[in-house]
Amino acid sequence: MKIVTRSLAIVFSMLLISCGGKEEKKKEGFSVDRKKTTEKPVETKPATDEVPASKRITLDEKGVGQIKNIDLPETIDDEMVAIGKSIYETNCTACHKLDKRFIGPSPRGIMKRRSPEWIMNMILDPKLMTEQDRCAKDLLVEFNGAAMANQNLTVEETRAILEYFRTL
Amino acid sequence: MRKYSFYVLMLLGFSALLSSCGNQGNKSASNGALSSSAAEKAYIAPGEHDEYYAFMSGGYSGNITVYGLPSGRMFKEIPVFSQFPTSGYGYSEETKPMLNTSFGFVPWDDAHHPDISQTNGELDGRWIFINGNNTPRIARVSLSTFETEEIIELPNSAGNHSSSFITENTEYVVAGTRFSVPVPQRDMPINEYKGNFKGALSFISVDPEHGHLDLKFQVIMPGFNYDLAHPGRGKSHGWFFFTTYNTEEANTLMEVNSSQNDKDFIAAINWKKIEEYVNNGGGTKMPAEYAHNVYDEHTHTGTSTMNKEVLTVDPTKVPGAIFFLPTPKSPHGCDVDPTGQYIIGNGKLSADLTVHSFDNMIAAIEGKKFDGDAYGIPILKFEDVLAGVVKSGGLGPLHTEFDDKGNAYTTFFISSEVVKWKLGSWEVLDRQPTYYSVGHLMIPGGNSAKPFGKYVVAMNKITKDRYLPTGPEMEHSAQIYDISGDKMELIYDFPTHGEPHYAAGCPADLLKPNSKKIYRLSENKHPYAVLNPSEAKVVREGNEVHIYMSTIRSHFTPDNIEGVKVGDKVYFHITNHEQDFDVPHGFSMIGQNTSELLVMPGQTKTSLWEPKKVGVWPFYCTDFCSALHQEMQGYVRVSPANSNVPLTYTLGE
Question: Are residues B527 and B600 in the same domain?
Answer without folding.
Answer: yes
